[in-house]
Specification:
Blueprint lengths: L6 E8 L15 H5 L7 H17 L4 E4 L7 H6 L6 H11 L1 H7 L11 E4 L9 E5 L6 H4 L2 H11 L6 E4 L16 E5 L6 E7 L20 H10 L7 E5 L2 H4 L10 E4 L2 E5 L6 H11 L7 E5 L6 H7 L5 E4 L5 E6 H4 L2 H12 L4 E7 L2 H4 L9 E7 H5 L9 H14 L6 H4 L3 H16 L11
Helix pairs in contact: 2-16, 4-5, 16-18
Bound molecules: N~2~-(3-carboxypropanoyl)-L-arginine.
């Protein structure tokens, strides 16, 4: 059923929120810790992200916009015992716990690869497209995201006949779920049934599965299995793969820092998975397409794990262009790393569909460990499904101008700890987001609007 209908992949990029800051909140994410004391520039961050979205749109690709979350999360502060009006709550938390203040102000929802796991209707038993927001419970600041993520997804994909929105998994480490960052889909084209790869870092119930020793494994096998169950994925269309625990300990906190897939291509580091040769053999066997499957393994000799983590080569997006060839959408850090840039040059002339590369300056996000692929949630949609998506969240020349004007009007170009302690920032942020819900026709998705 539905095996050959027109379908395409749409990237929904997180619009960087007005409170983007460097807080050093993500143990295991090297860039986040290295830049813990950095001064952020939210305006530049948002403009860098929008430039990528516009460039994708200009290449003829379908591009969507995923709104930021409302920050600071004063609800959680009240749950933690801070009382009074918003100003009093912020004054108290700034005095008692600056790290908590940073956490509730985090703009981490920009990394929409972690927003949810998405199973296209081509893969599911009921022929509907399924979403489950990630619980992100491994990091406090990220665990604040799933409710708003679900509200936003419902405002974007509002047709209940076509889209199913599941409640995020139980909010505790047994079911640690980081969304699409640990999920990819291999298929002949986006219009074909696919094999969904669920990559996990550890198991909660099975002690014989060895996880990392130093840094946390954020995704559990049990979470991946629950998502596949919830999404009603057809038999033979889901496979579970363990990430190599050694690379998690070297800073590969999500699988999308060491592997990227698109259609019939999987680009991965040779140390990405546990028991890699056997794992890849299983993958080849499980592949359900008719086209050849290209698995490109990048040797350590060419690109070390350290270079991969520094440059975010594997956090490039791999996109199919309108002529059917593939492009690597890479961060500029790849161009500036000689091992990586040499490898990319070689990759483009190898026998595989990847023909071109485009580099983007996403430094503001990169400094928190978020590259091009972190910033986008991929949704493979049939034409009727795409027609039912809220049209106001789709990128266009007019939408781009409206969003640039909005950013210019509301965003600061510098944010430090003392700015976060200034209660006026709350009013400023809420005013901006209220206006954004009109630009993107989202309705009342934020708690402060209710
Ligand atoms: O969860 N960084 C994010 C980066 C997420 C990247 N996403 C993917 N690989 N898909 C994280 O570690 C840093 C926040 C701070 O320290 O201010 C942060 O949350």
């Amino acid at each position: 059923m539905n095996n050959k209908q027109a379908s395409l992949e749409v990237n929904f990029d997180g619009l960087v929120g007005p409170t983007h800051n460097y807080a050093g909140l993500s143990y295991g994410n090297v860039a986040s810790l290295n830049n813990a004391d950095g001064v952020s520039n939210p305006k530049q961050a948002a403009l860098q992200g929008l430039a990528k979205m516009k460039a994708m749109h200009d290449m003829g690709l379908k591009q969507g916009v995923f709104a930021p979350h409302a920050r600071p999360d004063t609800d959680v502060l009240r749950r933690l015992g801070f009382t009074g009006n918003d100003t009093q709550v912020i004054n108290k938390v700034a005095k008692e716990s600056p790290v908590l203040l940073r956490a509730v102000y985090s703009a981490s929802a920009m990394w929409t690869a972690n927003a949810a796991t998405v199973s296209p209707s081509l893969d599911t038993h009921d022929g509907k497209l399924h979403f489950t927001a990630a619980n992100l419970n491994n990091k406090f600041h990220r665990s604040l995201e799933p409710q708003t993520t679900t509200a936003l997804l419902k405002a974007m994909f509002c047709d209940n006949e076509r889209f199913v929105h599941h409640t995020h998994l139980p909010e505790q480490p047994f079911f640690g779920d980081e969304g699409a960052a640990n999920h990819t889909r291999l298929c002949d084209t986006h219009a074909s049934k696919g094999l969904e790869l669920f990559v996990y870092g550890a198991s909660s119930f099975n002690n014989s599965i060895q996880g990392p020793k130093k840094y946390p494994a954020r995704q559990t096998l049990e979470a991946s299995q629950a998502i596949a169950r919830l999404h009603n994925i057809n038999e033979h269309q889901a496979i579970y793969i363990q990430q190599n625990p050694d690379v998690i300990d070297q800073g590969v906190f999500h699988n999308d820092v060491i592997a990227v897939g698109n259609e019939n291509v999987l680009l991965c580091h040779e140390q990405a998975f546990l028991n890699q040769s056997k794992t890849l053999e299983n993958l080849r066997q499980a592949y359900i397409g008719e086209k050849p499957l290209y698995i490109v393994e990048v040797p350590t000799q060419a690109v070390s794990v350290e270079d991969a983590v520094k440059s975010y080569l594997f956090n490039s997006q791999l996109v199919t262009l309108t002529d059917g060839s593939m492009m690597l959408v890479a961060p500029e850090e790849c161009k500036n790393n000689s091992n990586v840039s040499q490898y990319i040059e070689a990759l483009l002339s190898m026998d595989n569909p990847i023909n071109t590369v485009k580099f983007f300056d996403l430094r503001q996000s990169m400094q928190n460990g978020g590259g091009p692929a972190c910033l986008r949630l991929r949704v493979a949609l049939t034409e009727p499904e795409l027609a039912s998506v809220n049209p106001e969240v789709m990128m266009s020349d007019n939408k781009f101008s409206a969003l640039i004007t909005w950013v210019d009007k509301h965003y600061r170009d510098k944010l430090t700890d003392s700015d976060l302690a200034d209660p006026h920032l709350i009013v400023e942020t809420h005013t901006a987001l209220d206006e954004l819900t009109q630009i993107l026709a989202l309705g009342s998705v934020y708690q402060f609007q209710r």
